[in-house]
């Protein structure tokens, strides 16, 4: 049912975070599309964040993997699908014959659609007979899954997005929602604007953009969340802020949980000391929580990515259970997932310790249900290796073949250099991807081209259990195929029956049927039930509206949907009661030491996604944060001899990287923060994964991304520089570089250690300008080490390079703008080597609002000149912040700063 | 006749400028007599190039007409050069036999073109480029001859070449080294200049040693050391000038390369002053107009008895007067040990700029193609200002440096 007024528009869902916003894509017929928010989608009601808005910029085919390729002695060569899959199937068969089914593995992704995930899981667990299929969701929300299962008996997110607007208190824990889930954050903010009495509390070691609009920010010491929530549980029990009837009738285990909490968290002063926050602040939070029935605690990676991640989740859930804050509108513990289809992966059992349709591997009854349904020859009967162990096993040689699908573990895994070692030793590495060049693909023996967003078709499930369609609006490029199709073709070659799917619809129908199979109270009851969607015909599947599960078809033929779970206070445990889980406090596995005195925290920046294979293509998204950075407190910087704007080497026991030092990210003393996105395709040495300790949560297996002891030291260079070029450059000879996508150019930030004797010759070689008569402008102050050159072809700027021993080079903005011109004017040409327009023009400064391209200087200027007082006034004046709103916190900050500065100047 | 007598030998720019300076201070002090070799009033020799190029007429370049001499009570003997100075009796004798007594003598005999003494240099059609007579000869020959050869690719040679080419001749410039204007330009600028002039149609023979001017009676060609010959109907020698000091030497005045003067422009004879291209001050000789104006000011003042000024040598900029070629050179543009360079090249736009720094100060500049900041650099060189703060923008000009500061 396509209700769009524009008949060409295709309704689909966003490719990025777990909010799962509806997107309307209108193909323009040239491989591009106009993107807007889908006003009918309940997650976003037409709004999109900056990443979503820029989806259109990621559709180009440059850099795409378009044909199957096989690595031979002289590198990769193109082969047919038949040849590629025959080779993989042949090698898998012989490895399985010789070493057993545990010697092969799949490593998949929360980027996969549910249908892809379903086939992958079925293949491994029912046919290969191994549970060695894990996913990058392990790195993201497996602690949340484990926590829910321990508390509720099944992986169940109790509430829905609408609850955020109904809550009186929203507590965000370990979640920079403003940047990572902008649309949800906007919903919270709008609710707060309408009901100012609604409170927002942020618990995060960093003062992130999310804190800008919070009533309370608790900057807890990294890794102390369990103390905080144990303390809260203890406090609630002590002051009697409980729901005794609920606890009595619908839960188990409070006594044990309280005993554990009281061991070291009964005294709020002690808790405050451990958490390193002001005791008054802590009590203010506890009192607020105790006094507010409609409370939501929403959490993401700051909670999950920890060696105590599952306990953190249960410590949070315990606090909800003691007061009965669950199952009613506006309350509950809410895990917000990072990936577009992390939830879909959970539903089909796409993790090593799950089966399918919310059934357990270890449960013989569950195995029987699934085996019967699949008519599977051989069922895996115990958990497979979770991500970190999986790659260890590959390095050790017990796993001989791995197939990586839609993810980039060489960048994203902890101890990522270990992953590199593992892949380089592995007998057979297959990678299905949409990009030709990724850090992981460098190790692939076989590359298989998959469909990307806009080309593939199927379903995803967002953080509120809402299944939405992703619909294709572009043709398949090259020979790329859907992942479910690739896996099915492979399974058929392996000689497996049950993979004769002809469409995503066929896969989905089977998945939906399985969820309802023997799903009765008398047989094997599961709350995950989408059997109501099992009977959809192809047309109905195509037209499927976003639907929350569980969804069953009533006898009347109507669909019955549960927006929020546990309204009846019945949980998915054997006795129907929720469980308190005792959560003993424990510090992160690796403590800081003299050698590694700082705690590394990792996370996202506002405008990038994962390893940048898609967002890295969008110039709009490159402006906000161009380079990888290490955020550090100014006093720590002083202590460790690094300076803002300069490069630093950050190292841990596991690896090292180089990034630019910055302040102002709200980092507390003793920690540093580094974003996760940059990798070998975008920078010389910026894979933060290489540093991260491979410690995992004992229950969930989720790695401890938020706590690795590191040290930081100056990365000494002789010169700094940048290149803007229409072509891409091989910069292996340069000590440090980062590539940034611009509008019709690549930007490289450089730094070098080599002494350049002949600047002109060196620059020409680096930029590949060998023609002596090329239109080449240069400026040289040799003794000062300053060199600038511009290469022009047919009166159009082709590339330029600027070098200096200091960070004193001109802003890249004006030079960058010249790449949009077909012909340089005389006055442009005069300014080239200056790097500035020679007639005084306005420099907008670094981009704040990516949607409207509004720079910081422009905003500051308007604030002063027009005496703007509120964000609304700024928006009214400059549009900035008026679209996605992601930059509103920054505008607010700028507003305060600028007004203070202006006031001081007047004095 | 109570007033003391001032005799000026040389009716050129240096001599007359000194007289003007003197008149400003002490208009009635001397009886002034001026002898000039050329039969004209006083004209601007620098402007001969535009006259040759047809951009200016002779009238345009006259500085002082004969009426001016009359109005100022100056006796002018134009076309009657002085041939002898009798210092003991303080008398000069002109070619006409006229003898004039002096109390003060000012020698401003300028310089003579250097005519390379190769065989055939006396042939008809071999000229220098020094005075109105030369220009008139060239203009006349240009009307019915085809091939001009300029020997000497310096400032004057290039202006002559440009002028003759504008008069319709096919011009070849012969230069002994591999770079034009090597007194004022570094190699990159010289190459740009050569390219630009070639584009205008001039031909160049670089590293060419002239061996003989060929011709039976008037010139027909020029032969080089390597044996090659090019046709020539007109040969212009612009291979430098020599200070014109025969007269002073014969009078026993102390001369080195030129007449040696002190900071007041006085020679070793206290009654005798000298200015212009014929003098040597602290081992330097002069060819550009700016230092000569300075000398005239100092000398004029001393003649007027207001002797407090001292002549201080200062660097002075060079510009080439060839339409369409922008060129500015000033100071120590070679640099070398202990100096630093700022260089900008934009070959396609025909822009080359080089600044030479020493000890944080600007000491020289070569600008080609974009010379608008030349005067600013000249000022910075003269003032010896510390440019450390504006170094990053210095080469991009005054406007940007002001913005940056």
Automatic annotation (TrEMBL), chain A:
Keywords: 4Fe-4S, Iron, Iron-sulfur, Metal-binding, Molybdenum, Nitrate assimilation, Oxidoreductase. One of its GO terms (molecular function) is metal ion binding. Residues 7-63 form the 4Fe-4S Mo/W bis-MGD-type domain. GO terms for cellular component: membrane; oxidoreductase complex. Its cofactor is Mo-bis(molybdopterin guanine dinucleotide); [4Fe-4S] cluster. InterPro entries: Asp_de-COase-like_dom_sf (IPR009010), BFD-like_2Fe2S-bd_dom (IPR007419), BFD-like_2Fe2S-bd_dom_sf (IPR041854), CT_Nitrate-R-NapA-like (IPR041957), MoPterin_dinucl-bd_dom (IPR006657), Mopterin_OxRdtase (IPR006656), Mopterin_OxRdtase_4Fe-4S_dom (IPR006963), MopterinOxRdtase_cofactor_BS (IPR027467). One of its GO terms (biological process) is nitrate assimilation. SUPFAM superfamilies: ADC-like (SSF50692), Formate dehydrogenase/DMSO reductase, domains 1-3 (SSF53706). It holds the Pfam family Fer2_BFD. Belongs to the prokaryotic molybdopterin-containing oxidoreductase family. NasA/NapA/NarB subfamily. This is Molybdopterin-dependent oxidoreductase.
From TrEMBL, chain B:
InterPro entries: FAD-bd_OxRdtase (IPR050260), FAD/NAD-bd_sf (IPR036188), FAD/NAD-binding_dom (IPR023753), FAD/NAD-linked_Rdtase_dimer_sf (IPR016156), Rubredoxin_C (IPR041575). Pfam families: Pyr_redox_2, Rubredoxin_C. The keyword Flavoprotein applies. One of its GO terms (molecular function) is oxidoreductase activity. It comes from the Bacteria. Its cofactor is FAD. Residues 318-384 form the NADH-rubredoxin oxidoreductase C-terminal domain. Residues 6-282 form the FAD/NAD(P)-binding domain. Coiled coil: none annotated. The keyword Flavoprotein applies. Keywords: FAD, Flavoprotein. Belongs to the FAD-dependent oxidoreductase family. PANTHER family: NITRITE REDUCTASE [NAD(P)H] (PTHR43429:SF3), PYRIDINE NUCLEOTIDE-DISULFIDE OXIDOREDUCTASE DOMAIN-CONTAINING (PTHR43429). This is FAD-dependent oxidoreductase. It comes from Duganella fentianensis.
């Amino acid at each position: 049912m396509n209700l769009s007024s524009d008949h060409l528009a295709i309704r689909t869902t966003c490719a990025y975070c777990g909010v799962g916003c509806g997107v309307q894509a209108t193909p323009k017929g040239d491989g591009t599309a106009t993107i807007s928010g889908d006003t009918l989608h309940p997650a976003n009601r037409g709004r999109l964040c900056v990443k979503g808005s820029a989806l259109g910029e990621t559709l180009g085919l440059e850099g795409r993997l378009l044909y199957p390729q096989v690595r031979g002695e002289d590198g990769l060569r193109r082969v047919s699908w038949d040849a590629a899959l025959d080779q993989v199937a042949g090698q898998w068969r012989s490895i399985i014959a010789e070493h057993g089914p545990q010697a092969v593995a799949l490593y998949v992704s929360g980027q996969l659609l549910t249908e892809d995930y379903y086939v992958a899981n079925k293949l491994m667990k029912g046919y290969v007979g191994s549970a060695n299929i894990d996913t990058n969701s392990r790195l993201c929300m497996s602690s949340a899954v484990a926590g829910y299962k321990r508390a509720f008996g099944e992986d169940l997110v109790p509430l829905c997005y609408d609850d955020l607007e109904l809550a009186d208190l929203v507590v965000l824990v370990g979640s920079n929602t403003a940047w990572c889930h902008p649309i949800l954050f906007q919903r919270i903010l709008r609710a707060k604007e309408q009901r100012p009495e609604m409170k927002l509390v942020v618990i995060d070691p960093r003062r992130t953009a999310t804190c800008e609009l919070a009533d309370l920010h608790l900057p807890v010491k990294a890794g102390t969340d369990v103390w905080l929530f144990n303390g809260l549980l203890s406090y609630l029990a002590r002051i009697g802020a409980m729901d005794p009837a609920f606890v009595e009738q619908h839960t188990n285990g409070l006594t044990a949980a309280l005993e554990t909490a009281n061991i070291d968290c009964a005294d709020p002063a002690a808790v405050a000391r451990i958490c390193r926050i002001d005791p008054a602040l802590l009590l203010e939070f506890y009192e607020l929580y105790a006094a507010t029935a409609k409370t939501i605690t929403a959490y993401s990676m700051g909670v999950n990515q920890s060696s105590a991640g599952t306990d953190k989740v249960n410590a949070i859930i315990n606090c909800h259970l003691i007061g009965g804050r669950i199952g009613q509108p506006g309350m509950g513990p809410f895990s917000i997932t990072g990936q577009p289809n992390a939830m879909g992966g959970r539903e089909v059992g796409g993790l090593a310790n799950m089966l399918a349709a919310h059934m357990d591997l270890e449960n013989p009854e569950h195995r029987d249900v699934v085996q019967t349904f699949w008519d599977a020859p051989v069922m895996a009967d115990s958990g497979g290796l979770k991500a970190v162990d999986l790659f260890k096993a590959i390095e050790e040689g017990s796993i001989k073949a791995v197939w990586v699908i839609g993810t980039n573990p060489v960048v994203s895994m902890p101890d990522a250099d270990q992953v590199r070692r593992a892949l380089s030793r592995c007998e057979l590495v297959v990678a299905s991807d949409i990009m030709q060049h990724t850090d992981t693909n460098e190790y692939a023996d076989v590359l298989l081209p998959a469909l990307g967003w806009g080309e593939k078709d199927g379903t995803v499930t967002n953080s509120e259990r809402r299944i939405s369609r992703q619909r294709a609006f572009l043709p398949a490029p090259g020979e790329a195929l859907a992942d479910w199709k690739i896996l099915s073709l492979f399974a058929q070659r392996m000689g497996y029956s049950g993979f004769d799917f002809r469409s995503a619809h066929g896969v989905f129908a089977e998945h939906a049927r399985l969820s309802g199979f023997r799903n009765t109270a008398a047989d094997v009851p599961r709350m995950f039930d989408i059997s109501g969607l099992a009977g959809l015909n192809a047309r109905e599947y195509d037209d499927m509206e976003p639907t929350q599960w569980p969804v069953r078809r009533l006898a009347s033929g109507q669909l019955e949907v549960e927006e929020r779970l546990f309204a009846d206070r019945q949980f998915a445990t054997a006795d129907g009661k929720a469980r308190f889980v005792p959560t003993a406090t424990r510090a992160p596995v690796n403590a800081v030491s003299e050698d590694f005195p700082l705690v590394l925290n990792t996370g996202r920046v506002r405008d990038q996604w994962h390893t940048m294979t898609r967002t890295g293509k969008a110039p709009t998204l490159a402006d906000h944060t161009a380079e990888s950075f290490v955020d550090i407190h100014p006093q720590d910087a002083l202590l460790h001899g690094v300076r803002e704007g300069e490069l630093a080497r950050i190292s841990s026991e596991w690896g090292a990287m180089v990034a630019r030092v910055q302040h102002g990210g709200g980092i507390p003393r003793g920690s540093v923060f580094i974003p996760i996105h940059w990798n070998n395709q975008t920078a010389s040495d910026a894979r933060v994964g290489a540093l991260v300790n491979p410690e995992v949560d004992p229950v969930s297996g989720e790695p401890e991304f938020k706590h690795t002891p590191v040290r930081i030291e100056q990365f000494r260079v002789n010169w700094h520089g940048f290149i803007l070029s229409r072509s891409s450059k091989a910069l292996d000879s340069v000590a440090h570089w980062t590539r940034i996508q611009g509008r019709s150019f690549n930007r490289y930030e450089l730094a070098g250690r080599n002494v350049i004797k002949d600047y002109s010759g060196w620059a020409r070689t680096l930029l590949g300008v060998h023609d002596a008569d090329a239109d080449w402008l240069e400026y040289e102050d040799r003794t000062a080490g300053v060199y600038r050159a511009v290469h022009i072809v047919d009166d159009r700027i082709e590339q330029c390079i600027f070098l200096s021993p200091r960070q004193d080079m001109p802003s890249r903005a004006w030079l960058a703008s010249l790449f949009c011109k077909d012909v340089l004017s005389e006055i442009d040409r005069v300014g080239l080597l200056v790097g500035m327009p020679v007639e005084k023009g306005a420099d907008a400064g670094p981009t704040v609002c990516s949607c409207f391209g509004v720079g910081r200087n422009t905003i500051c200027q308007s604030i002063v000149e027009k005496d703007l007082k509120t964000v609304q006034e700024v928006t009214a004046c400059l549009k900035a912040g008026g679209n996605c709103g992601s930059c509103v916190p920054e505008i607010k900050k700028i507003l305060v700063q600028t007004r203070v500065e202006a006031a001081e100047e007047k004095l | 006749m109570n007033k003391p007598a001032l005799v000026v030998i040389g009716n050129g720019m240096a001599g007359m400028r000194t007289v003007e300076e003197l008149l400003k201070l002490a208009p009635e002090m001397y009886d002034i007599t001026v002898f000039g070799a050329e039969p004209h009033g006083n004209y601007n020799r620098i402007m001969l190039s535009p006259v040759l190029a047809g951009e200016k007429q002779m009238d345009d370049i006259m500085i002082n007409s004969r009426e001016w001499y009359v109005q100022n009570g100056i006796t002018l003997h134009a076309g009657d050069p002085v041939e002898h100075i009798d210092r003991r009796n303080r008398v000069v004798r002109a070619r006409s036999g006229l003898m004039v007594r002096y109390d003060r003598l000012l020698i401003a005999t300028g310089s003579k073109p250097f005519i390379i003494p190769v065989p055939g240099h006396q042939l008809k059609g071999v000229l220098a480029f020094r005075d109105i007579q030369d220009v008139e000869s060239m203009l006349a020959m240009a009307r019915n001859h085809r091939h001009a050869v300029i020997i000497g690719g310096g400032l004057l040679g290039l202006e002559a070449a440009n002028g003759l080419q504008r008069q319709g001749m096919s011009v070849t410039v012969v230069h002994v080294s591999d770079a034009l204007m090597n007194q004022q330009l570094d190699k990159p600028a010289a190459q740009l200049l050569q390219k630009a002039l070639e584009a205008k149609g001039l031909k160049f023979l670089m590293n060419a040693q002239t061996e003989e001017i060929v011709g039976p009676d008037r010139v027909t060609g020029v032969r080089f050391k390597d044996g090659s010959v090019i046709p020539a109907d007109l040969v212009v020698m612009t291979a430098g000038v020599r200070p014109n000091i025969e007269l002073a030497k014969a009078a026993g005045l102390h001369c080195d390369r030129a007449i040696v003067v002190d900071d007041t422009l006085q020679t070793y004879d206290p009654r005798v002053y000298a200015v212009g291209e014929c003098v040597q001050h602290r081992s330097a000789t002069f060819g550009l107009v700016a230092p000569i104006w300075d000398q005239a000011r100092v000398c004029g003042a001393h003649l007027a008895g207001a002797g407090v000024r001292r002549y201080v040598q200062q660097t002075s900029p060079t510009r080439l007067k060839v339409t369409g070629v922008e060129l500015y050179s000033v100071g120590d543009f070679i640099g070398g040990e202990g100096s630093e360079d700022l260089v900008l090249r934009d070959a396609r736009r025909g822009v080359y700029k080089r600044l030479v720094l020493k000890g944080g100060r600007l000491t020289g500049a070569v600008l080609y193609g974009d010379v608008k900041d030349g005067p600013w650099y000249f000022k910075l060189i003269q003032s010896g200002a510390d440019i450390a703060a504006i170094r990053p923008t210095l080469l991009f000009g005054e406007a940007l440096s002001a913005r940056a500061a």
